[in-house]
Fold:
Amino acid sequence: MRQDLDLKIRAFTHTSRRTARTDADSPDQPQALIKALQDATTTEVTDLFLLAEQIWSSLRDAQPTPLTEFSAEAACYLLFCQVVTEIFSRDFGQAKLARVAGKLGVDQPEGAAVVLATARRHMAIDTTLAWNVLVDVRIALGTVVANR
Structure:
């Protein structure tokens, strides 16, 4: 997971520098995103939620622009990496996976993986939907969540 995350962070950083700015974007927005992404390179994968929430919360009242949409996708990806790590950690047994799947409304323990795959697909289309699915998974896991 760490290797994939580091590669994605480099790609996000590179793209954020080249993403078109509009008058609706705050002047420090690209630098704030790049800083958060660089912080993610030294953050444990199990601790990415705070960075993801920091990026996400900065977008709450922002107008949709290419940069805000890109920032939302980056925040979702950080949260996705943390959730995947939480679900597939070594101490996460079948019984707990079955409970989480039940809380997510799926019958089989493998359904939790399907929910994650669905969230990943949503990231490219509707980041708010993806974020909400990932937050629902964290609620099912019993982890601390922020406001949507």
